[in-house]
Each structure stands twice: as structure tokens, then as C-alpha cells.
Amino acid sequence: MSYDTVIELRNLVRHYTMGDETVKALDGVDLDIGRGEYVSIVGPSGSGKTTLFNLIGGLDKPTQGNVFIDGVDISQLDAYELAWLRCRKIGYIFQSFNLIQVLTALENVALPTVFAGTPHEEGLKKAEKLLTSVGLGKRIHHRPGELSAGQQQRVAIARALANDPAIILADEPTGNLDLQTGQEIIDLLHGLNKAQGLTLVAATHDLKMIKASDRNVWMRDGKVERIERG
Amino acid sequence: MRGEKRMVYFTISDAVRLGIDYIKRRFQRTAINVASIGLANSFLTSLIMTDLFYATFNEYQGSSIGVDAYQYWLVAVALIVSVVGITNAMLISVYERYREIGTMKCIGALDQHILMLFLVEAIIQGAAGGIIGYFLGVVAAVLSSGFTTGFNIIFMVPIIELLGYLVGTTILSILLSIIASMYPAWRASKLPPVEALSYEL
Ligand SMILES: Nc1ncnc2c1ncn2[C@@H]1O[C@H](COP(=O)(O)OP(=O)(O)OP(=O)(O)O)[C@@H](O)[C@H]1O
Ligand SMILES: [Mg+2]
User: Fold this and answer.
1) Which residues of B touch A14 (CB under 8 A)?
2) Rounded distance from Cα A24 to ligand 1 centre (Å)
3) Do B197 and A79 touch (CB under 8 A)?
4) Is the CB of residue A49 less than 8 Å away from at least one CB of chain B?
5) Which pLDDT score is estimated for B1?
6) Which atom of ligand 1 is nearest to the CA of A219?
7) Which residues pair with A157 in a beta bridge?
8) For residue A121, which of A129, B179, B31 has the smallest C-alpha distance?
9) Separation of A46 CA from ligand 1 center, angstroms?
10) Are A201 and A214 in contact (CB under 8 A)?
């Protein structure tokens, strides 16, 4: 299969300095990810998966090297352009959901549309549609605390989709879920990837996720150890 | 990305809508801040009103009773205490919301949007505290000076003057609440998203 490249990582380095010690969280990563591809980032704890996730998503700045999204070096973006990228281009999914506790499911999903400048009513309609599509049509007025872990992750997925992003970044999206619920979330993400051509990059320990993906990138000590086709 | 309009939006009315959600659903902390401002303002208002009642009374009676100047020092202290208390409460509220701030930044919020959100809350609680405090202060002043001046004194003060003080002390309360919230709000807005997201309470 051939894809045009949507994410390019070039000699990506991220060091943390703590006192005299330097932790090489990422130590020179090169990787191309194609449009519509589903890539799993796999590796033992501390191998740099979350660090990589943060750098691709423009949430953190590399010590060295570059991240290109659609050919644009994101280190060159100003605060507005970076916010736009996070808002419109990328959808984030986290292990711990990171929903806003005081808002209902509907309001959580609609929030990214506010930053995208969508009229309020339209944003709410879109959010309702997305929640229905992830199977939560009857739960739209519940707050996160009133939903199960799996339902919360569905809300988070709907939120990630709110502005029709090109890329979904997920950091251990099944890490806090039981086997059955985890499988449902994987199927949901996989379905989105296949049906809508969303590029999906997921850091994971979960063998079920690895099986579903097009390519698996194995990390160790901040480096890419090997890449295998799924 | 080229050629598209790269903008993120967050209007005052969005901030107000979200701010009200926060206040409604985390009512306790807001209530404490409102009470703090309200008490300080009721103290201030009661002094101003007592002064006003005495002055009105003096006009009619040719007497010369008044409020001791040192009491205004006490009011100043009360206002400062209330500012410090609010700063403290707002800082705690920033810590509680670390993850949410990180999340907001992930979905497109700029630093100034976070700042706006906290300041809107500060304004709402300042206004609420100011208005509640004002009416408590007026009641207190009527009760305390009424024995000397007669309780109907309040009707002898021009209503426009009463309204003027309502507006004045409410604006003061809002300003104090904003001053108290500035540092916490600034801290919140500058949080790097990764740090905010990885914060465990
Ligand atoms: N803020 C930080 N300060 C210092 N060191 C850090 C920081 N964040 C990560 N590290 C270090 O960087 C390395 C990579 O961490 P990272 O979180 O990317 O691993 P991971 O592969 O996501 O692990 P896990 O599977 O446990 O989530 C680790 O050694 C970690 O201790
Ligand atoms: Mg991790």
C-alpha cells in the first residue's frame, strides 16, 4: 500500500535534564506516517511513547529535530497557528480521557467546535450526532462522573472528531479499560480509520490494538527498534 | 494548512457561558469567594451609609455626630484580607483545574482564552459579592444608626445617592476580585499543555 505522507519525523530528540542527569526520552527518531494509515507505537514503559505522542501533537517542543505535518514544520508555527493545528487538524485521545468534569458529554464534545468558530447551535448539533455515532445518543446530558470508563472514552473519541481532524493521536486509549470495553474502543477507532480515512497513531501496550494496525513501530530507549507490518 | 484561514475563536460570550457553568457546578468555592467579598463590602457600605445617615441627621437636627475615622482603616484591612483570601481560593481552583486547562489547550485554547475564562469568573463573583454586600451593609447601617437617627432616616437620603454607592462599591468589589485573581489566572494561562495534562491531583 502506498500513502502520501502526512506526518514526518526527522531526527527527533527530546532530552529531559534533571540536575546533572540527562534522560534521553527520545534519541533520534525518524518516521513517516501516511495519510489514512493506522500506526501503533509499541514499547516497554519508559521507551518514549508518550514523549513521541506529545511532540507529534505539538504539545511539547523537541530538543532537536523536526515534526512535519502536511509538509509544514510545526516548530515554525506561532501560537495561533499551533492552536489552530491542535484544534482543527489533530484529535487527541488520552488514557485517562481528560474530559471536563463540570460539562455534560454534549458540552464536552461541542467544546472544540467553539474554538473552531462554529456557531453554538450548530456545534451542539454536530456533538449530538457524534455522540450518537459512538453509541451514546441517550447519554448526551450526563456528566463524565455519571458515565462508565468505556463510555467516557467514547465521549473523548467523539470530542476528538468534533472538528473533522485529519489525524487522531491516541496515547494508550485502552489503558484504563477492561478487555471487553477495550476491544469495543479499538473497533470504534479502527472503524473510523477505515471508513473515514483518518490517520490513526496510537501508543499502546495492548496486543489487540497492535493486531488491528497497519504498521507497528517498536520503541526502546527513545529509539525506533524495528517497524513491522501488521 | 497553507491558504486556509488559521484562526481559533473564543468570544467573551463563550467565556461567560463556560464561566457560569463552572460557577454553577462548583458552587462551593465561588460561594466562599462571594461571601468574602460580600462581607468586606458590607463592612465598607455600612460605614459609608452610617456616615451618610449621620450627615443627613445633622442637617435636620443641627447636631454633629459622625463615624470615627479609624473605622475606615479597619475597612481597608478587611478589603485586603478579602483580596488575599480570594487569591488563595483562586490558586487552589487553578491547581484543581490543571488537567482541564491542559485539555482546553489541546483542543485549541490560547493562553489568553484561559486568562479570559478565569477573569470572567472573577468578575461574576466580584459583582455578586458586591451587590449582596451592599444590601447587607445598608441593613446593618440602618440597624446600628437607627436608634440615634430614627429608622426612617434611610428614606431621607436621596435614592440617587443610594444607587450611586451601590454602583460604586460593586465596581470596587469587581476590581478587587480581578486584582485577586490576576496572578492565579496568569499562572493558569501560562501552563504548558504537557505539564498540565500529566498533573496528578
Ligand atoms: N517531564 C519529564 N521529566 C523528566 N523525565 C521525563 C519526563 N517525561 C518523561 N520523562 C522520561 O522520559 C522517558 C520516556 O517517557 P515516556 O513517558 O515517553 O514513556 P512511555 O513509553 O510513554 O511509558 P509508559 O508506557 O509507561 O507510558 C522516561 O524515562 C521518563 O522517565
Ligand atoms: Mg506513556
Assistant:
1) none
2) 9
3) no
4) no
5) 47
6) 21
7) none
8) A129
9) 5
10) no
**Best CA proximity match to A126, nearest among A143, A191, A117, B117:** A117
Give the pLDDT of residue B29.
85
Q: pLDDT digits over A72-112, tens only?
A: 999 999 999 999 999 999 999 999 999 999 999 999 999 99
Q: What is the reported pTM?
A: 0.91
3-class DSSP state of A27: strand
pLDDT at A3: 58
- Per the prediction, chain B carries an average pLDDT of 92
Q: Nearest residue on chain B to A107, judged by CA atoms? A: B18
- ipTM of the shown complex: 0.91
Residue extents of the structural domains in chain B: 27-60+67-197
How large is the average pLDDT for residues B88-102? 91
Grid cell digits, residue A104? 455534560
Conformational region of residue B24, where left means phi above 0, alpha means psi within -120 to 50, and beta covers everything else = alpha
Evaluate if residue B5 carries a pLDDT over 80.
no
Instruction: List helix spans (H) across A57-214.
Output: 79-84, 105-115, 120-133, 149-160, 179-196, 207-212
Average pLDDT score over residue span B160-168: 97
Query: What's the CA-to-centroid distance between A42 and ligand 1, angstroms?
Result: 14
CB A168 within 8 A of CB A201: yes
Matching residue, cell 468574602: B36
Q: What percent of chain A has pLDDT over 90?
A: 95
Over the stretch B24-36, which tens digit does the pLDDT of each residue have? 988 988 999 999 9
Point out the ligand 1 atom lying closest to the alpha carbon of residue A95.
27
| pLDDT reported for residue B69 | 86
Task: Map out the domains of chain A with their CATH numbers.
Answer: 5-229 (3.40.50.300)
Residues B32, B92: contact at Cβ < 8 Å? no
β-strand pairing of A215-220 with A38-42: parallel
Q: Measuring CA to CA, which residue among A68, A75, A90, A61 is closest to residue A5? A: A68
Give the whole-angstrom CA distance, residue B29 versus residue B7: 34
d(CA B174, CA B38): 11
Nearest by CB to residue B109, choosing from A69, A83, A159, is A83
